Amino acid sequence: MARDHLPQIAPGTSQQASIQISVTGALGHRVELLPVDEGVAWFDKWSNKPLVMGPFNACPDGSSAKVCDATGQPLLIAPSQ
User: Fold this and answer.
1) In whole angstroms, what is the distance from residue 6 CA to residue 8 CA?
2) Confidence (pTM)
């Protein structure tokens, strides 16, 4: 399980956010994102379903620097920090 912060989003509105996921932890797996209101509850308590992405795999061209989604499309990879 990994955690990251999202911006404050007012009820009834939407906002775009970016979340970085470790490539080594995601290869061969899918990722499920589910918000939590810290100290209150996970959003699935209120019948929200997680956002499911993946599975993520090494791209068919064999490049270890590329990760592809389930359809074989390369994903954007952030530089190592």
Assistant:
1) 7
2) 0.59
Q: Give every residue of the chain whose pLDDT is below 50, as ranges.
A: none
So where are the chain's domains? 21-33+51-76
**What number of CA atoms fall less than 13 Å from residue 46's CA on the CB side?**
8
Q: Give which of 76, 75, 69, 72 is closest to 61, Cα–Cα.
A: 72
Which residue pairs from 28-37 have beta carbons closer than 8 angstroms and sit at least 24 positions apart in sequence? 28/55, 28/56, 28/57, 29/54, 29/55, 29/56, 30/54, 30/55, 30/56, 31/56, 35/6
What per-residue string of b and e applies to 54-76 under the rule 16 or more CB within 10 Å gives b?
bebbebeeeeeeebbeeeeeeee
